């Protein structure tokens, strides 16, 4: 039996109706994993919302299914986005699913190679521009205003509407709201989506968004955004914003992998920094926004080295001590 798509499951709280075609790849319903060892280590009841299990490996698919479905409903001929990687992959996949051309603009040298390969394989036209993410976003917004392409960045309200469903799933699976929700802070669209969901549910869960202390140069490429487009809206949500150094992000990233077996990309570990600092208490949910295979170059850089060993059992046993 085919599971319900995210749109079908949450149709009553999404901006869709019977005229909206459902463009889906089976997104949503991602695992909520209890983290017993890290819970004991850090003195909280820790849960991990594993968004890397979405079809393209990131949480972006939640919003993209809605944004592309609405674009098709409105008769779009093509879609466009600026991206540091994950939005591009999601747009490329859902555009391909819908049979729409996809144009992606990325900042030169700022996107993990694995993500670019994923986008290219999905058939999107990838253009690399000199300058920052913020400059690429300005450019594609101007293009979209001409009417030739539908913008599917998080400025598209349908993206935010879809992304709020992660919170609805968490509350359903836990049987009630957690004491705190923690997530990375790049452009801020996901923070506003989470705040929207909490408001609609009428709960007062603490929302903590963790950004890179050095936004323009952080190794966490998915949140390498100097001027977050949703900054004013994030401030309005009342979310606590914490800044994390790259060293803190890497330490959190490695602890999640080695401590609980969850391999996320570096930016996804940002929310866990707040747990490591002792900034939250009680039942805590950390959203891990993207899969570790999105950035294998960073994994190769920070993972323990491979050991060389002779092919005999004694040498193997000795090396493993």
Describe the overall structure.
With 321 residues, the protein is α/β, with parallel strands linked by helices. It folds into two domains: 6-55 and 158-302, Rossmann fold (3-Layer(aba) Sandwich); 60-156, Rossmann fold. The protein contains 14 helices and ten strands. The strands form two sheets. The protein has a six-stranded mixed sheet, with helices on both faces. Strands 5-4-3-6 form a four-stranded parallel sheet, with helices on both faces. α3 runs parallel beside α4. The protein starts with 5 loop residues before the first helix and ends with a helix. The model has no long low-confidence stretch (mean pLDDT 95).
Quick overview of this protein structure:
With 321 residues, the chain is of the alpha/beta class.
How many strands, what sense, and barrel or not for the largest sheet?
Answer: 6 strands, mixed
What number of domains? 2
Strand arrangement, major sheet: 1-2-10-7-8-9
Q: In CATH terms, what is the fold-level topology of the largest domain?
A: Rossmann fold
Share in β-strands: 15-25%
- The helix/strand series, from N terminus to C terminus, equals HEHEHEHEHEHEHHEHEHEHHEHH
**What is the correct CATH architecture of the largest domain?**
3-Layer(aba) Sandwich
Keywords:
321 residues; alpha/beta; Rossmann fold; 2 domains; six-stranded mixed sheet; four-stranded parallel sheet; 10 strands; 15% strand; globular
How are the elements arranged and paired?
Elements: H1 6-9, E1 32-34, H2 36-42, E2 45-50, H3 60-73, E3 79-82, H4 86-98, E4 102-107, H5 113-121, E5 125-129, H6 133-145, E6 150-151, H7 157-163, H8 165-174, E7 180-184, H9 189-201, E8 206-212, H10 231-237, E9 240-244, H11 246-260, H12 270-276, E10 283-288, H13 296-302, H14 313-319
Helix pairs in contact: 3-4, 3-7, 4-5, 7-9, 8-9, 11-12
């Amino acid at each position: 039996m085919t599971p319900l798509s995210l749109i079908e499951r949450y149709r009553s709280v999404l901006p869709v109706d019977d005229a909206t075609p459902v463009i889906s790849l089976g997104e949503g319903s991602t695992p909520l994993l209890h983290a017993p060892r890290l819970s004991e280590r850090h003195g909280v009841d820790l849960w991990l919302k594993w968004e890397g299990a979405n079809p393209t490996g990131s949480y972006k698919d939640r919003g993209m299914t809605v944004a592309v479905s609405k674009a098709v409903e409105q008769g779009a001929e093509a879609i466009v986005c600026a991206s540091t990687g994950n939005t591009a992959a999601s747009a490329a996949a859902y555009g391909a699913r819908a049979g729409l051309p996809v144009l992606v603009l990325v900042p030169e040298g700022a996107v993990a190679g694995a993500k670019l390969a994923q986008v290219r394989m999905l058939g999107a036209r990838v253009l690399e521009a000199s300058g920052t993410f913020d400059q690429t976003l300005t450019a594609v917004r101007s293009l979209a205003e001409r009417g030739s392409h539908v913008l599917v960045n998080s400025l598209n309200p349908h993206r935010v509407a879809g992304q709020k469903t992660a919170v609805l799933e968490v509350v359903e699976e836990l049987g009630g709201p957690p004491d705190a929700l923690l997530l990375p802070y790049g452009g801020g669209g996901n923070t506003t989506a989470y705040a929207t969901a909490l408001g609609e549910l009428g709960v007062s869960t603490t929302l903590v968004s963790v950004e890179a202390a050095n936004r323009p140069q952080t190794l966490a490429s998915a949140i390498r955004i100097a001027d977050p487009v949703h900054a004013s809206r994030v401030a309005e949500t009342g979310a606590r914003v914490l800044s994390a150094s790259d060293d803190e992000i890497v330490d959190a990233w490695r602890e999640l992998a080695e401590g609980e077996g969850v391999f996320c990309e570096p930016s996804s570990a940002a929310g866990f920094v707040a747990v490591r600092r002792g900034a939250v208490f009680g039942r805590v949910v950390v959203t891990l926004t993207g899969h570790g295979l999105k950035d294998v170059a960073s994994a190769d850089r920070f993972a323990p080295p491979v050991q060389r060993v002779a092919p005999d059992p004694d040498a193997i046993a000795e090396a493993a001590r």
